[in-house]
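Researcher: Sequence recovery benchmark, item below. Answer with residues only.
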């Protein structure tokens, strides 16, 4: 009994001594004396400055070192960390249990992260670079290195650490985006049981407040990340660690004005598991955003010569729900599904990759779409190439398929096939009516736009082959049939080969070579047109012929030139060829009217010299009818911005029109007209050949015709092709000479007849003398 009493008294004395020590030691042990040494040691190892408040010691149930304030600055004296309430504590019971525990705790710290104009984060430049030391030689290729496995002492493996940061304010500012910072309020971090033998628990939660960037980007709302890390020791040696993470951002709100909005409650989560050992590291994860789910798997093995495997695969993502998140999609009512599958594998020095994107039954509305086309397609990519891609479009009256491949990204070679059984854009698109384009103060410089192509190494080395085959294609009521061609691009030289198509009841064949390397691209082109119905062309959209000629057009042309800019292109265009139009109709050139005006003005002027012509006119009733022509034809050249037809001939149908021929020049840009024509009334449409006069009692038939030929005369045309004007100043003089010659000839013949009648009554000797005189005066 005495023994028990003594033991009890001894225990009480021991407890009293411990209690007195707990109370007294903090008064005698000055831990603050180490503050200067601590700050000096830290400041020597960082690019910045650490400031510590007063340190104090408490031994009530634990060893607790309180820090009376802490501040950390970067080299530019920007504050990174500021906290007034922080401490370390070391519970006594953890020492007695053989698992010593050290916890660090901060309450309401302010954490600041700054991204400067160079893109550097101040927290990443805080630590100084370690001093270089001699490193062991790099192992030779193929040499295997066995990772060292460390054996931990028992007390180290059982030691437990903890970190707790509560009610922190994290401020992030990017000076390149905005002067206003983004912040995460009530940020909390809890790392519990950091140990080699226990599962470490992790929790991060807080409230993001990025509303100050509402003009460009706003992110706000609560989030939570939780997880654990489970290290595994085998015979007190580290073997591997497994980490599980869960993230929930459902209540985060994201707003990009006029572009994107994620509302509170839209699913945004991830779940991941990572595992690492000395031989291999791997990860499996599932990330979900809205209705899209992505599964990720990856690993890195053999750290000496790392072998990488990584894959990502999505579900079939319905596109229609995304109309509620992406503003630009709302008006299009996007439909269909899309999916993604990708992966990388191989050694870290030479990774291979692959990816495939598919989309099915994609539909969309648009303001000018009459129907919703259905689009399907896929793109398959593998290392250094696009193995294949294809897109199909189906809609009422429309069926299109595009497919191809790209052989190499380093020296790209692209092959594309475009095939269609029929494209009717008039059924698909509500085209706006053509309107006159306002002239801009400055025109686009298309030649300069090609400069990036000439300087881009990828485009310079790119080779392209495109085969086109359209059964029909229709737009603006213009229908093209049997369109086939081949487009080749190599070394910045493009070649449009064997273009062939049927249009406006005619057939067109063409080819063109363009060299894009010069600052002003050069080109050569050929064209062969047969049977093109110009009236059909005008009634559809080819307005350039609206006020010129109708008929069946045939022409061949060889052309060359430089520049894509309109003015120099017109100036530098050089071409020559031959053209003809069968059964033509002139829409602005009224030859009957021209001939009538020219002839009547001539007859009026001749009336001043031949009195019997006063008051007479040619009969224009038949000439007023629309002239019908059998053919117009000419060689032609284009040079200096002018189109010239030097031997233009318009041949009328028998008894249906007036012929004319001559030299015609038209300005390509301004449609200026300069022509010298000879009008020939081959079929006496104007009845000008029937015009007669009486002079000195002699009737002169066919006054304006030369012998048995038709009436003909010259005229000149000017102004513009669309509004021509005509000059008849040469006509009176030309026809006047013919008329006076005819009158003189007729009077002379009459005089000769009278002389011959008189000589018949004379003696033979007198008749011989008279014959000599008539031959002298009348030529016979």
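Model:
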């Amino acid at each position: 009994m005495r023994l028990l009493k003594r033991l009890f008294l001894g225990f009480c004395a021991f407890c009293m001594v411990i209690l007195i020590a707990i109370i007294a030691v903090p008064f005698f042990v000055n831990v603050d004396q180490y503050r200067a040494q601590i700050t000096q040691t830290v400041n020597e190892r960082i690019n910045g400055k650490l400031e510590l408040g007063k340190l104090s010691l408490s031994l009530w149930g634990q060893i607790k070192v309180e820090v009376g304030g802490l501040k950390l600055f970067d080299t530019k004296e920007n504050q990174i960390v500021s906290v007034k309430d922080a401490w370390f504590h070391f519970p006594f019971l953890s020492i007695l249990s053989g698992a010593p525990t050290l916890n660090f705790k901060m309450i309401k710290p302010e954490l600041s992260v700054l991204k400067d104009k160079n893109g550097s984060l101040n927290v990443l430049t805080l630590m100084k670079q370690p001093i270089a030391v001699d490193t062991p030689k790099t192992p030779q290729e193929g040499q295997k290195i066995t990772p060292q496995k460390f054996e931990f002492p028992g007390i180290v493996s059982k030691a437990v650490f903890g970190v707790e940061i509560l009610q922190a304010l994290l401020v992030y500012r990017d000076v390149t985006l905005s002067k206003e910072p983004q912040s995460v309020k009530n940020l909390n971090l809890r790392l519990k049981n950091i140990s080699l033998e226990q599962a470490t628990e992790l929790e991060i939660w807080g409230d993001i407040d990025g509303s100050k960037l509402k003009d460009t980007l706003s992110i706000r709302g609560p989030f939570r990340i939780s997880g654990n890390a489970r290290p595994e020791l085998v015979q007190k040696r580290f073997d591997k660690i497994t980490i599980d993470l869960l993230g929930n951002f459902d209540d985060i709100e994201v707003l990009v004005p006029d572009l994107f909005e994620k509302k509170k409650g839209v699913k945004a989560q991830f779940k991941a598991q990572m595992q690492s050992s000395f031989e291999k590291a791997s990860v499996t994860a599932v990330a979900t955003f809205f209705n899209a789910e992505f599964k990720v798997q990856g690993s890195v093995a053999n750290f000496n010569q790392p072998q990488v495997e990584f894959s990502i695969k999505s579900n079939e993502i319905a596109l229609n729900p995304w109309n509620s998140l992406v503003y630009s999609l709302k008006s299009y009512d996007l439909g269909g599904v899309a999916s993604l599958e990708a992966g990388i594998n191989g050694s870290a020095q030479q990774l291979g990759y692959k990816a495939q994107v598919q989309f099915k039954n994609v539909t969309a509305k648009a303001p000018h779409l009459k129907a919703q086309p259905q689009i399907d397609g896929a793109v398959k990519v593998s290392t250094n190439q696009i193995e294949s891609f294809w897109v199909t479009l189906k809609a009422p009256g429309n069926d299109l398929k595009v497919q191809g491949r790209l052989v190499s990204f380093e020296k790209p070679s692209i092959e594309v096939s475009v095939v269609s059984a029929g494209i009717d854009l008039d059924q698909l698109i509500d085209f706006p009516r053509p309107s006159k384009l306002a002239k801009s103060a400055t025109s686009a410089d298309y030649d300069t736009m090609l400069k990036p192509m000439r300087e881009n190494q990828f485009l310079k080395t790119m080779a392209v082959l495109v085969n086109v085959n359209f059964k029909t294609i229709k737009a603006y009521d213009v229908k093209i049939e049997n369109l086939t061609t081949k487009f080749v691009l190599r070394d910045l030289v493009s070649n449009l080969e064997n273009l062939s198509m049927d249009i406006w009841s005619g057939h067109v064949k063409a080819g063109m070579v363009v060299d894009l390397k010069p600052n002003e691209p050069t080109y050569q082109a050929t064209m062969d047109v047969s049977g093109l119905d110009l009236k059909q062309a005008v009634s559809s959209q080819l307005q350039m012929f609206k006020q010129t000629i109708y008929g069946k057009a045939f022409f061949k042309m060889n052309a060359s030139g430089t520049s894509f800019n309109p003015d120099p292109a017109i100036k530098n265009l050089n071409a020559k060829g031959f053209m003809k139009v069968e059964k033509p109709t002139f829409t602005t050139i009224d030859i009957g009217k021209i001939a009538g005006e020219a002839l009547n003005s001539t007859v009026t002027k001749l009336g001043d010299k031949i009195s019997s012509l006063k008051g007479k006119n040619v009969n224009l009733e038949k000439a007023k009818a629309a002239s019908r022509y059998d053919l117009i034809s000419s060689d032609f050249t284009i040079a200096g911005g002018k189109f010239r037809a030097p031997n233009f001939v318009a041949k009328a149908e028998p008894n249906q029109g007036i012929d004319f021929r001559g030299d015609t020049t038209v300005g390509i840009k301004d449609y200026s007209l300069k022509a010298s024509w000879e009008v020939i009334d081959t079929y006496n449409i104007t009845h000008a050949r029937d015009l007669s006069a009486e002079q000195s009692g002699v009737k002169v038939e066919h006054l304006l015709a030369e012998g048995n030929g038709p009436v003909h005369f010259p005229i000149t045309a000017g102004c513009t092709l669309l509004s021509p004007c005509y000059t008849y100043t040469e006509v009176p003089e030309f026809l006047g000479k013919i008329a006076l010659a005819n009158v003189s000839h007729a009077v002379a013949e009459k005089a000769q007849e009278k002389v011959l009648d008189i000589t018949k009554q004379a003696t033979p000797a007198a008749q011989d003398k008279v014959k000599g005189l008539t031959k002298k005066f009348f030529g016979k």
